[in-house]
Amino acid sequence: MARNWDVVVVGSGAAGLMACLELPPELRVLLLSKDSAPRSASRWAQGGIASVTRPEDSFTSHIEDTLRAGAGLCDQPAVELLVHQAPDCVRRLLEIGMAFDRDGPALSTTLEAAHSHRRVLHAQDRTGGALVEALEREVQGRDGLEQRRGVAALGLWMEQGRCVGLQVMEAGQIHCLKAGAVVLATGGGGHLFVHTTNPAMACGDGVVMAWQAGAELRDMEFVQFHPTALMLPGAPRFLISEAVRGEGAHLLDGQGCSPVADLPGGDLAPRDQVSRALARTMREQGVDHLWLDLRPVGKQRLEQQFPTILGRCRELGLEPTEEPIPVAPAAHYWMGGIFTDHEAATSVPGLYAVGEVACTGIHGANRLASNSLMECLVFSRQLRLLKLEPQALITADQFGPDCKPDRELALDLPPIEVLEQAIGKLRELCWWAAGVERCRRDLAPSLGRIRQQRRALEQDPNWQRFSSLRAGGEVGLKSESALGPVLKTKLEPELGKRFLTWHELHQRLVLAELVMEAALFREESRGGHFRTDAPASQPFWRRHSIQKRGPAGGGEHTIGTTPVDQPAQRDPPRGAQQT
Ligand SMILES: Cc1cc2nc3c(=O)[nH]c(=O)nc-3n(C[C@H](O)[C@H](O)[C@H](O)COP(=O)(O)OP(=O)(O)OC[C@H]3O[C@@H](n4cnc5c(N)ncnc54)[C@H](O)[C@@H]3O)c2cc1C
Fold it and tell me: What does the alpha-carbon distance between residue 289 and residue 313 come to, in Å, rounded to a whole number?
C-alpha cells in the first residue's frame, strides 16, 4: 500500500463509497475499512431511503416532517439541503444501477413513522445491501482509487493544527499514511450499548479519533433507540423495520393490549416515544420484551416485501406469519457526532466527516426514519467541491517505497478474554445508565467509573509506550530518521489482535465518557434524550451541546452550547495540537 495519498477515506459504508465516487476525479484516493468481510450498518439497512418522488408529496412536507421529528434541534439550512438534493441523489443512484422496487414504471414508496407521505424508496427489505452493491460496483471503476479492507485507523496525524494523515494497523503492523485530506466515514456508535441493532464495528472510532485531534463534537447525548429489535436470548438484536408497522403490523403486550395506544400516531408515533412506551410497559410488567404482530400485513405481502426479516426469524425458529414475535428497544442511530458544515468539513483543517459519524444538524434531537442513508449520500456528494490547499499537497517521493517493518513494539497486554469482558461490562453499563431512560443518579457515578477506568488504562506503561508512537505527536515526525519507528512498527501476529481489542477498549471508554458527560449536561428531555429527573423540554435547552478538547491535550475539555441554525465556524489552523 502506498504511503501518501491525496485523500484517505476511512469506512466503506454508503457514505465512504459515495465520497469516493464524488471526490474530484484527479485526486488519488485510498479507501480503507477495518472489516475484512464486507459488512457495515449501510448493508444492514432495511427500510429504505427518503426522498420526495410522488406528485402529492412536496419538499415543504419532507422538511416539516424532518423538523418535527428533530424536536427543535434541526439546523434548517442543512435540512433544506438534504431534502432539495435528495431527488438528484435518487437520479444518480438510478444511473449507477440501483434496483429500487417499482410500482409499474414509477418507483415504489412506503410509509414510515412520522412521515406524512409515502416517500421511502426501497429494494424489498434489503435496501442498504442493494445500495452498497450498486455503489461498490461503480467505485471499482474509479481511476486513481485503491481499496483496502482489514485496515483499522487508530488515530489522526496532526501537524500545526491540521490533519495530515493517519495512523493505521494492517496485518499486525502499525503504519502512518500521509494524506492531503482525511475523510472519516466510520459510521455510528450504537455498539457502545449492549442492546443494539448495529454491527460490532459501529463503536464510534471516528468520533473518538476526531475528538483526540481537537475537532468539535455536537449533540453527543442524542441516541435513537429503535423500538423493535428482535429479542431472543443469545441471538443478536436483529432489526424489525418500522416499515412492517407502516404496512399494518402492531405492538402488543403479553395480555394482547397495545402499549402505544395512548400515543398520538400509535404504532407509527416517533421512535423515541414508542421506545419509551415499550420500556415503561416492560418495567411495569417485569418482562424483558413485548410482542410485534406481523399477521395483519398478510402472508403474501410479508413474503414479497420483507423476505430478509422473515428469513431471519425463520432461521431462529419463529414464524411471523402465524404468531407475534418478541421485540424490545435497542440503540440504533447516533444523531450527534463530529460537527460538520455543509461541505462536510470538521473544525480541524484537512479533516472531513460524512455519514453517521458526522453531525450535520439534519436530525436534530431525533432522526426521521430513512433520512440517514440520504444524509450519507447528499453530504458525501458535497465532497465534489473539495479543494486541497497547497500546503496539503504531498510530493510522491516524500515517503520512500520501502516500508518493511524494522522495529518491534514490546507490549504486555491482558489476555483477549479479559479485554472482551471489559468491553462487555462497559456496554452493559452504558445501556443501564444512558439507555432509553436516563437520570443524574445513574449517569453521575457511571461517568466517574468510566473516567477512572480510562485514566487507569492511559497510565499503564503499555499505553505510554504506544502513545509515544502516536501519529498525532508532533515530535520527530518531520525528520526522516525519526519517521522510522512510527512508520514501520511491527507487532507479533497474535499480539496484533489483542492490541486492536485493547485499543478499542480505550476508544470505547473515551466515547462512553463523552456520551455520559453530554447526557448529564442536558438537564431536560428532548428527542432521543430522556431524563426521568427532568422529563420536560426546556426552552433554554433549544441549543446544541458542543464538546471540545482542551488545548493542552491532557484530557481537560469543555462542554457548552451553541444556538440552533448557527453555521459552523471554521477557524484557520490553530497551531500545534496533539491527538
Ligand atoms: C439494522 C439497521 C437498519 C437501518 N435501516 C435504515 C434504513 O432503512 N434507512 C436509513 O436511512 N437508515 C437506516 N439505518 C441507518 C443507516 O444504515 C446508517 O446510518 C448508515 O448506513 C451509516 O452509513 P455510514 O456509511 O456512515 O457508516 P457504516 O455503513 O456503518 O460504515 C462504516 C464503515 O467504517 C468502517 N470503520 C469503522 N471504524 C473504522 C476504523 N477505525 N478504521 C477503518 N474503518 C473503520 C467500517 O468497517 C465500515 O466499513 C439502519 C441502521 C441499521 C444498523
Answer: 16
Tell me what percent of the chain is helix, strand and coil, each rounded to the nearest 5: 35, 20, 40
Q: What are the residues whose beta carbons fall under 8 Å from the beta carbon of 574, sequence distance 6 or more? A: 161, 214
How far, in Å, CA of 473 to CA of 456, rounded?
Answer: 21
Q: Among the options 119, 218, 271, 367, which is catalytic?
A: 271
Nearest CA to 119 out of 105, 134, 106, 132 is that of 106
Alpha-carbon gap, residue 57 to 264, rounded angstroms: 22
Closest ligand 1 atom to residue 209 Cα is 41
Cβ atoms within 10 Å, residue 560: 11
Q: What residues does ligand 1 touch, defined as CB less than 6 Å away? A: 10-16, 32-35, 40-42, 44-49, 127-128, 152-153, 185-187, 197-198, 201-202, 205, 239, 333, 355-357, 370, 372-373, 376
List phi, psi (to 5°) of 301.
-65, -40
Listed in sequence order, the residues at least 6 apart from 456 whose beta carbon sits closer than 8 Å to its beta carbon are none
pLDDT in tens, 404-450: 444 567 778 899 999 999 999 999 999 999 999 999 999 999 999 99
Its pTM stands at: 0.93
Instruction: Decide: 89 and 374 in contact? Cβ < 8 Å.
Output: yes
Cβ-contact 122, 90 below 8 angstroms: no
Q: Is 440 exposed, middle or buried (0-12, 13-18, 19+ CB in 10 A)?
A: middle
Side-chain half-sphere CA neighbours of 575 within 13 A: 3
153 Cα: distance to centroid of ligand 1 (angstroms)? 16
CA–CA separation, 367 vs 376, rounded Å? 13
The pLDDT assigned to 46 comes to 85
**pLDDT of 97-126, one tens digit each?**
999 999 999 999 988 878 899 999 999 889
119, 57 Cβ separation under 8 angstroms: yes
Q: Is 271 designated active site?
A: yes
